[in-house]
Amino acid sequence: MKKIFAFLVVALFAFGCGDSKSDEDVVDPGKSDVADVVDTPDEGDPTDDTATSDDLGEPQDNAPADDQTPAPDDGTDTNEPEHDPGQEPEGCSKATVFSGPSCVETAACEMACPGDEDFLAQCKEATSAEGLDQFNALRECMDQNECVAFFDGDAPDNCAFTNCKDQVDACMPEGTKTCRDIWMCRKACDPADLGCPAKCVSLGTIDDRLVWNEYQDCVLQADCALTDTLANGWPTEQCENDIQSNFCTNQAEDCFPPL
Can you give the pTM of this predicted structure? Predict the structure, then answer.
């Protein structure tokens, strides 16, 4: 009995020593030998000091106010009309000024750019004090009677002549030239001087102005007077000769009496 008990004690002692040795050799394959001591934040934790306002999806509270307003780009509408470099400016800046000291020369000059005050001011620069007084009196009367223009073609407009006859006579006094003289002046007009025909008429006597008007009206009704013209708009010599011979014989005789 003592032998059996001694055997059991030895066996238990041997078993206990073998179990302790096996615990030292066992390694858990799911764990590392070195403990992980770095505290890594979760991916969704927005605590990174390098985060920007764009990353957070909100503007930073300390951003300057000016930075929050985007500057307009080149395509931004500034509510200002665009300037077309190919478009000429309005007005009569390129018209040539043909004026002189008299009232009628100033009125004829205005015909190139009616209603343009800047151009009219240039016309008045050559006007004498007397001519300017006459012109201003005429314009005042015309404005009161709602007359649009002084000239209708190369003669005083009916509205101005009817309502402002005294002012018209003062601005366009009777001249001394004949119908032939008016005709010669008209043919020699500079194409750029739109008031030249009116100034030519002002040279004539009252009677010769009437004769000229009859002749001119007849000539300008002919077919060739619409196409066969000089640069200044008056019919060519061939066209006018044909008109005098076939259409306006009486008017031509009145304007060109034998010398």
Answer: 0.63
